Every structure is written in C-alpha cells, then in structure tokens.
Amino acid sequence: MRRSLILVVVGAVLLAGCGSSSSGSSSPVNTELSYLPANSSFVATVETDPNGAAIKGANALISRFSFGGLAMAALKQKLQQQGINYDADLRPLFGNPVALAVTGSVSGVSNTDALVVWVTKDANKLKSLITKTVPGSHSVGSHDGVTLYEGKGAGAYAVDGATLITGTSLPLVTAALDRHAHGGGISSSQYSNAMLGLPQDALVKTFGNLTGALSQASAANARKVPWVAALKAYSATVTTSSSGLGVDFHLDTTGGSLTPAQLPFAPGTTAPGFAGSLPITFSVNDPAQIASFVESAQQVTSPAGYADFLKRQAATRAKTGVDLNSLIQLLTGDLIIASNTKTAMGRVGVTNAATAARTLAKLASVPRGLDSSAKSVTKTGDFYAITDAKGSVTRIGIVGNQLVVGTASAAELQRFASETPTPAAGANGSVAFRIGLASLLQLAMHGQSVPQAAQAILSSLGDITGWASSSTSGITGDATVAVK
C-alpha cells in the first residue's frame, strides 16, 4: 500500500494533542515559512505543541464529545495497521507548528500542488518515520547541500537535520530549498502583518495572496468593481476551547483606494438586532448600501444587463411615477432576514411609512414593477401577494414602520414585523448572523431515524453566531460555533 508522507504528517497533526512532549523556547515558524512562496494563494500553520494553549483548547473541545476519544483511538489504530506507532514514532516529533502551502506553478507543475515544511523535535525519529512511510525511498541527488529523496507514490522530500520539506513533485521541493537559502520565501514581517489583529493562540492560522488570482484574465470583469480590484490578501484563524470553536477573518482591501460608498455593506461597528424564532437569522445596517453596491457592480460588469434594468425601471416610472429605486431609497433601518430554509421573511425600517405605502401601491399596480418574474399581484389586507409562473406566492407590505416581505403567511409576517429586535450579543460590525444549528439539523432530518451518536452531537451543539465590519481597508469578522 502506498503511504503518502504528506498524509502521515496530517495525521500527526490531528493527534498532536494526545499525550505530551516538550517544546523549545523559540518558534521555528519563520524558518518553515522561508521555504514557502511569498505570493502563495493559501498558507496554513497548524500547532502541534501539546503543552501550548492551542492544543489544550482542542483537547478541551474534543473532551466535550463522548466519541472524541474513540475517534482519536481509531486514528491511532489505523496508523498502527500501517506500521506506525503513535507514541514511539510520532509523539517525539511534536512541539513546533507544521506549515503548508498551496503553491503556484513551478516549472510547469500544476498550481494545486502542496508543499509541507515541518521543523520537528527529533531528527532521528524523523528519519525513522520516513523509512516506514515512504516505500522505496531513495536518494536522487542533493540541492543546496540537502539530500533529495523520492519514493513510490509519495512525491519528493528533503531532510535537513530535523526539518522535513515534502511536496508533490521534485521541482516543488528544490524551489523551496532555493527560497530558504537565497530568499524569496514568506518573511516574518509578512506573516506578522497577515495575522495582525487575529488571535495569536489559534490552532490553525491561514492566509494568502489574492492578487495572483485577480490578475487572471478570467477575473478581468470582476476587477472593474473598485472593491474587488482593491482586494489584496486574506487571513483567518481557528481557535478551540471547551466552549466551542471560533473563526476570525480579515479581507485586506489596501490594494486600491476606496471610498465608504464603494463598500459592499455599510461601515461601522454598531451591530443590528435580531427578530423572529426561525433558526437562521441575518441582519445588516443600511441595506440601501448593499443595493447600491450591487447596482453599481452590475453597471460595470454587465452593461447590457444594467441597460435592461434601467429600461424596465423607466417603463415602470412612466406608468406609475415611481420605480424600484424610489422604494429602496426609503429603506434606512436595519434589514433582518429569518428563515428555516423553507420559509423566509425579511423586514426593514423605512423613513416614512406613508410614503413607502404609496410607493408600494403604485409599483404593485404594474405586475412586474415589484418583481420582473411576477405573473400577477393581488392585494389582501396589508399585503400584496406576488405570484410567479410556478405558482409560488411572496407577500409584501408595510406594517408599522417596517417594510416586510416573505413566503410566510400574512399572520406570520405581521408578528415578525411587530417584534422588538433583540441585540446581537458580541457583534461588533454592521452585519450579524445567528444559526440555531441543532434546530436546523433537526428540521433537515424531520421524519428520519436519528442515530444515537447523531443525537448526542445535536444535544451538544449551540448556536453559530457571527458578525462582520467593513472599512475602506478591509472586512473583519468572527464566527463562533458554541458547544453546550
């Protein structure tokens, strides 16, 4: 059986928290990154120090689930079946992070190839592990004073003392050695800047350069949007603890000059509220900015489509004196959307309810004034019912100072519009969301027999909550999966 060295390293990372080992006082992550291309589209570092906060947090989370220990035992057993003893062969190597990159093309190599670098804690144990995991391993020369190896079905690798450099091809490995010896790898300042403002004790840290992907001919149309053209890089971290799992992220848009009006959603750190009892809730401040962003993006990326939109708007205005933008301009309150994947409702505050009601009535007098796919529009009570060609009905109306729309019943929409919003706890941006994961999964499995193990997972899951904030320099956000 072929055993990829990269896969064995991944398995080692998953098991890093089991048992204990010592770690040195200095971090070798900068050494590992020096082997990786500075313009990599994806880079990840994964902690392996059992005595560090990251692995302790992962262990604490795993211990919350009864099957966690069984899963780790099964992985150990699988390795043992391949002749690898966790305690003797893997655990002595732990202590320093593992660095991985999805590389760009090197001498014609596919851009989906992977490169892994790991400064282990034991050179002898590393050599022993390679002997066991790479069948037919043999030297194919040296490069920059480091011996190169290849094995059957295992790509190529180099070993420099306790440092392993392995990739899916020999050119990848030799290019990595060149970067480390002569420069061109990821610098410590590049790494520090990418992780700025994100948790430093994260289990996984990822980042990447976006300029390469955006410079492709296929992205030329998207680059016409100023915000897309300003995208430079991204970064994200994964942290774990007994209370759950957290993901923090940042999109860097310092690659161009932006104004607040060019952002995809409104800037600011004041979070909108939530309403409704459905398991999925999404809210955003000033939805008119999103509409403006979408319209301006369509204008530059799809001129023909935008011209058709303007034509429909002009036709509606000629008949009614208003158009869809007349209604959108009145939407200045928070937009709150609630759904259970089958039923969806949305509400948004309007500046003047009477004006919004008159505008809505005029638009409804033209079937396609509200929805270009509408077949008919009828009025019942406070709501206009829009029926499409498939017979699906969407209701829209003004309730108090809220414009409310959705596929729910009129009574459900009334209640939804009348609710007092609750704060989005912990949110620090103008976009917030909450997903009742257990409720959503139960709805998805309605009527089906749920295994006992799945029931245990569902009973342990809390909400997924998150937020995002926007500025001219980037978008920052957070998402948390809670465990009860």
Question: What is the secondary structure topology, with strand pairs?
Answer:
Blueprint: H1 5-14, H2 29-33, E1 42-46, H3 53-62, H4 68-81, H5 86-90, E2 98-102, E3 114-119, H6 123-133, E4 138-143, E5 146-150, E6 156-160, E7 163-167, H7 170-182, H8 188-194, E8 204-209, H9 211-214, H10 226-230, E9 233-241, E10 244-252, E11 280-284, H11 287-301, H12 303-320, H13 324-328, E12 331-339, E13 344-350, H14 353-364, H15 367-370, E14 374-380, E15 383-388, E16 393-399, E17 402-406, H16 410-418, E18 431-436, H17 437-444, H18 452-460, E19 461-471, E20 474-483
Antiparallel strand pairs: 1-2, 1-8, 2-3, 3-7, 4-5, 5-6, 6-7, 8-9, 9-10, 10-20, 11-12, 11-18, 12-13, 13-17, 14-15, 15-16, 16-17, 18-19, 19-20
State the gist of this model.
With 484 residues, the protein is an alpha+beta fold. The protein has helices spanning 5-14, 29-33, 53-62, 68-81, 86-90, 123-133, 170-182, 188-194, 211-214, 226-230, 287-301, 303-320, 324-328, 353-364, 367-370, 410-418, 437-444, 452-460, and strands at 42-46, 98-102, 114-119, 138-143, 146-150, 156-160, 163-167, 204-209, 233-241, 244-252, 280-284, 331-339, 344-350, 374-380, 383-388, 393-399, 402-406, 431-436, 461-471, 474-483. The protein has a 20-stranded antiparallel sheet, with helices on both faces.
